[in-house]
Structure formats: structure tokens, C-alpha cells
Amino acid sequence: MGGHGILLFSLSSLLGIEASTQRLLPGLISSHREPLGGHMLSSFCSKENLFALKNTAELHVPPPPQYYSGLIKDIETLGWNKVEFVDPAFSIIRLKAEDSCSRNHLITLKLNPKYPTEPPECLVDLPVQFSASWNPESSLLSIHSQFLAALESLKEFWNALDEIDEKTWVLEPEKPTRSATMRRIAIGNNVSVNIEVDPRHPTMLPECYFLGADHVVNPLKIKLNSNIHLWDPEISLLQNLKEVLEIDFPSREALQKSDFSMDCGICYAYRLDGAIPNQVCDDARCGQPFHEACLYEWLRGLPSSRQSFNVIFGECPYCNKQITLKLSKKV
Ligand SMILES: [Zn+2]
Ligand SMILES: [Zn+2]
């Protein structure tokens, strides 16, 4: 921390800012605008403090007084209502932005003491890279409007995924972030499809990967291949998936009412070290899901099981019919 820390701590205590009073910041700043102008700051910087600052200046360059006054001016131009968070040191600022579909987004800016000569670091939750163009005359307002433009360019992508999140049962991710391009959607008892949506072409056919027993998954693959010409970029992603696969995705409520089982038949859990049960018994009447690691341990313990390269053959612990485990990686 060094001198940097001393200056920042003192400045925030000067302003009476506590981390827990962030929401009061706008008022505090307006009523304390004078101290930021410079003269109180220089009277605060006593000889001892300046000496301390000088000694650590090589390690951490403290922001000059105009850093704060410039930043406050920047925030006032943008509007305090767009500020979600400011740390007491004024080095981290989080801004709010609402896209034209009323979705709320955040952008976190990490400012360095040379702001605005040097650009802030931007942290965003977007499925694509965000790099704001910057010159020394740029301000928070210009970053904010570039962020809004980036949000608009992803509108279709979020429309497509919001519809899926709302109308189907998304098994993974459990709480999708705005940058998440993947969804695993439940289709029926122990059957699901994994889709990977291209954020730049959200209504195009996504990469699809089916999970489930062969007798259910194979007909879906055949339908996808033979109906692919029906794909219409003018209609929604979900509608296209329904029409091409000739299925109706069940809602979470409907599936939970039936005896939809997702838990592993060996450890009785859904999540095991972050993994979900992705192996299914091939027998149509059984269809029991298992974790790859659990099934591997089970089959390895069976005297009757045999392995050929990365495939292990044995019996299902539930129905005793043959089950094959294709190892995806070393377990
Ligand atoms: Zn398990
Ligand atoms: Zn079985």
C-alpha cells in the first residue's frame, strides 16, 4: 500500500466516506466538492506525509488531486444514477447499463492513477470480447456508450437464450451468466441436449450434442440431420429446435411431476466434484443415469467386466443388462 494507501485512506476519511455508505456517496461528494478542488488536499499533505509519499512514489504513484476532481466531473456528466458502486479510493467504479430489452448489465472499471491519460481496465459479463477505444479526452461517458452499443449488438443472442431459460428446463449451467453460451436442456427422462450458441449468429443452428441412452438419442440425431433444411433464421432458436427435432421441450414443472430422475444410481447424488451424471444405461426400460467416475469404479470392481482401449463393458448395477462406458478422459 505505502504512500498510495495513506493518501487514499486520508482522503476518504477527509470526505467522511465509509465503504458501507456507498449509497450516500453522491450527496457526500456534492457537499464536499470544495476539498477536492485542491487547497484542502495540499494543506493535508504535510511535510511528513509528502516525505512518505515521495519515498514510495517509485512503487505506487498516487493519483494527483486532479484525478479525483476529473473523475467526479466525469461521473456527474454520466449521471450518478448510472453508478452502482465506487470504492472509497475511487479506483474501482461499477456502472449500470440497461439494454433496449430492459435487461440490466454491469461494467466494472479499474482505474489507474494515470486516468484519463491511460484507459481503465474494463470487466464485463459478455460472451464476446469487449475493448473500448480510448484517448486521453475520453471519459466514463464514452466507455458507457460503447458498452451500450456492445449490449445492443448482443440483443438477439440474449433474446434467444432468455426464451430457452424461461420456457425449458435448463439443467446446466444452474445460474447462467450473461456470458454463458452453452445450455443443457432437458428433453425427457434422462435425455438432454447440449447446445452451444454463437453470440454473433444466435439464430443459426447451434452445435448440438445429445446426452442419453442410444435408443432415445439416435432418433433425435436422425431427425436433426433430415430436418436441417427446415431451419429458419427468421424464427426463434427455441422454435427452430422444436421443429427440427420434432419435440416439445418439457417445462421444469412438468418434468419434476413425472418420475424424472437425474441423480446418479450409484452415489445417489446429482453433483459429484462438479460432474453431473452423463452416462446412461442403454436398456430402454432402465435408462438409469450414472456419473462417469462412479460407473468406472463399479465396472472396475466387477470380475466379469472387460476393457478394450477406452471402452469398458460390464453389467448395469440396476438391471444387469450390458452397459458400456466410453471413457471421456482419464478418471
Ligand atoms: Zn455418482
Ligand atoms: Zn440398466
Automatic annotation (TrEMBL):
Pathway(s) the chain acts in: Protein modification; protein ubiquitination
InterPro entries: Fancl (IPR026848), FANCL_C (IPR026850), FANCL_d2 (IPR043898), FANCL_d3 (IPR044037), FANCL_d3_sf (IPR043003), UBQ-conjugating_enzyme/RWD (IPR016135), Znf_RING (IPR001841), Znf_RING/FYVE/PHD (IPR013083)
UniProt-listed PROSITE patterns: ZF_RING_2
Entry EC no(s): 2.3.2.27
SUPFAM superfamilies registered for this protein in UniProt: RING/U-box (SSF57850)
Coiled-coil stretches: none
Reactions listed under catalytic activity: S-ubiquitinyl-[E2 ubiquitin-conjugating enzyme]-L-cysteine + [acceptor protein]-L-lysine = [E2 ubiquitin-conjugating enzyme]-L-cysteine + N(6)-ubiquitinyl-[acceptor protein]-L-lysine
Domain RING-type span(s) in chain numbering: 264-320
GO molecular function, one term: zinc ion binding
Keywords linked to the UniProt accession: Cytoplasm, DNA damage, DNA repair, Metal-binding, Nucleus, Signal, Transferase, Ubl conjugation, Ubl conjugation pathway, Zinc, Zinc-finger
Signal peptide, first to last residue: 1-19
Pfam families in UniProt: FANCL_C, FANCL_d2, FANCL_d3
Superkingdom of origin organism: Eukaryota
EC class (word): transferase
Subcellular localization: Cytoplasm; Nucleus
GO CC entries: cytoplasm; Fanconi anaemia nuclear complex
GO biological process, one term: interstrand cross-link repair
Protein name, as recorded: E3 ubiquitin-protein ligase FANCL
